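Holo model, glycine. Inputs:
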Amino acid sequence: MKKILLVGNGAREHVIAETLKRSPQEVSIIAYGKARNPGIIALSDRYEVGPLDTFEQLKKLATEEKPDFAVIGPDDPIADGAVDALLELEVHSMAPLQTVARLESSKSFTRDLLAKYKIPGNPKFHIFLTEQGVEQYIRDELGGDFVVKADGLMGGKGVKVSGEHLHSAEEGIEYAKKCISKFGRVVIEEKFVGEEFSLMCFCDGENIAPMPAVQDHKRAYNGDTGPNTGGMGTYSDADHSLPFLKPEDIEKAVEITKKTARALFEETGAEFKGIMYGGFIVTKSGVKLIEYNARFGDPEAMNVLPLLETDFVKICEAVINGTLDTLDVKFSKQATVCKYIVPKGYPENPVKGEKIEVGKTAEEVKLYYASVDQKEDGIYMSGSRALAFVGVADTIGDAEKIAARALSTVNGKVFYRDDIGTDALIQKRIDHMKELRG
Ligand code: GLY
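Output:
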């Protein structure tokens, strides 16, 4: 029997738990999270609630349970050194050590790494330690089309883009100054125009195994309007590419990730073991890197893991042992659509502590619990994305219909985007790329 310590309590960790349990091997899950996720509770043999920003309680649990290995879902504990803390107890993780997790937690580290090792995909960028030169760079070098990136984790809110979150060069300069005073540095870079896609790869430090590409939808409301969120929903296609991508776009993203894994080792002496999740954008001049994350995407994990055909436990062990090249990592050739239900007012003023009830859904739809807490009398929302519904089918259109039908069964103070994965929105993406490529 394999005993696995699973850290995190969102929908991403729920699908991770489900995928571990699908292993042909006997699996016992010991779960640790900030709140009681009913989906993970149902799949685990022990469920402990505790902090994720300190590791004493987590280490105590690992000492008691002696797991074969750990899987750590969320970005914050990875950036704060949860993998290093567990390694002190000789518990290895399917997640990277803190030094290589800088790939996500430090935007300047990643830009410098790509530049130093001549890896394609970087924008024109500059790292400022003081405000001197910021104005000239934004106005003259970048011509007013720019991105300002805080050099630390800010819960997905650290990156601000001109024309979207920053409405003038002045606002950009002000935000850059704030970043410098908070983190001691700021990355300012060229703004890319194109279509974004997520390409996640299992990585054992040297070898990588790509997963199907996914497109996320960050804006809160239909038609890509409203404030940025953690991601309102995602889709993937049966051919493991996306309808607006060319085969060479995926090849390029894979090449960038392969080179980055090797550069990370050369630079730090530590192997990146976990998920290298590239946020890429295809532009009129090819594929560029927006950012790397050092974990599964959320919602992206809900698109790819239900399709995984290879034993996930074996993949985790191969990542940890550096033997990923001996495994044939396979995903079934199906399309998926994931849609999140979120509390009213999300993301800025979400209702909290409200009950949510799911009606009778079709057997074919998958339900993953996210930011909810299970109490004696039902399930309550905690203020962030609450439930994810996933449809899996031969086409994106059919997968969308499965997820959409399930959304309408939910009762509570909630809303969702009903355009994600629809034919109309997919066509808009295709037309956008056609126009850009000329
Ligand atoms: N899909 C966005 C994220 O996981 O950061």
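The CA atoms of residues 56 and 318 lie 28 Å apart. The domain at 2-103 is CATH 3.40.50.20 (Rossmann fold).
Archived with the compound record.
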